[in-house]
Write a structure and sequence with these properties.
This protein is α+β, with helices and mostly antiparallel strands. It has 2 domains: 83 residues, Membrane-bound Lytic Murein Transglycosylase D, Chain A (Roll); 121 residues, endopeptidase fold (from Nostoc punctiforme) (Alpha-Beta Complex). The strands form 2 sheets. A 6-stranded antiparallel sheet has the order 3-8-4-5-6-7. A two-stranded antiparallel ribbon has the order 1-2. Helix 2 packs across helix 3 and helix 4 packs across helix 5. The radius of gyration is 27 Å and the shape is globular. The N and C termini lie far apart (89 Å).
Length: 229
């Protein structure tokens, strides 16, 4: 009789262990799912955002963000982009550095983009005065230093202002951050071209249009990002 009771006790213990293992397995599955989901980012686009800026914010590649948004050239405030990252996800939203001495300033870039947009006065066609209107925006936000009658001349002037701008490779032009200044070389044209990125795949100068990815004159592009003042 004692042996029978002992065997039943053992069986009861085994059943409890089995049940606990099942519960643990379920909990582990839930924890695994939570860990996997924790690597998923959902970002709502705000004014001044760009693929470049979003990628920098979450430490992923520009291509990761573009692919998650079906490779659309232009993003708009209110767009929702969901993508995965293998890095450590911060518990709170990472705020971009507003002003630094050696890196792109998000705040200054947005200010410059807004000033340039105002210079277009709603125009969607060129007046042939891209340099004039870009220089006006730079004058208002940063300081007056751009001169000359041709857009390509701005490149060396911007490069000389190392305390105000940082030159970066002219890659991924369609995903430049707000306030990036793009200067196209003269090439076979008379003046080249200059514009300020709006951070959404469009550029502004004397008008607003899609970000130029190549220039008819064949000149190369140089890109300058505003730094903290």
């Amino acid at each position: 009789m004692k042996s029978l009771q002992h065997n039943r006790a053992i069986q009861g213990t085994d059943q409890n262990l089995i049940q606990q293992n099942i519960q643990d397995f379920g909990s582990n599955k839930e924890r695994l799912a939570m860990l996997q989901n924790s690597n998923e980012i959902t970002h709502t686009v705000v004014s001044g955002d760009s693929y470049w800026a979003i990628a920098q914010q979450y430490s992923v590649s520009v291509e990761t963000v573009q692919a998650a948004n079906n490779w659309k050239e232009i993003i708009h405030p209110g767009d929702v982009i969901t993508f995965s990252t293998t890095g450590v996800i911060p518990q709170t939203e990472v705020q971009p550095q507003e002003e630094t001495s050696e890196e792109y300033s998000v705040a200054l870039g947005r200010e410059l983009a807004a000033a340039s947009l105002a210079e277009t006065a709603g125009r969607t066609k060129s007046t042939g005065r891209c340099y004039f209107y870009v220089a006006n925006a730079v004058d208002k936000v940063i300081e007056r230093f751009l001169y000359g009658g041709h857009a390509y001349m701005a490149a060396d002037q911007l490069a000389a202002k190392k305390d105000l701008f940082i030159e970066v490779p002219a890659t991924s032009l369609s995903s430049l951050p707000a306030g990036a200044i793009v200067v196209w070389g003269k090439g076979n044209s008379k003046s080249g071209h200059i514009s300020i990125s709006q951070g959404d795949g469009t550029e502004t100068s004397d008008f607003r249009g899609r970000q130029m990815l190549s220039h008819y004159g064949g000149g190369a592009a140089r890109v300058f990002l505003p730094k903290g003042r």
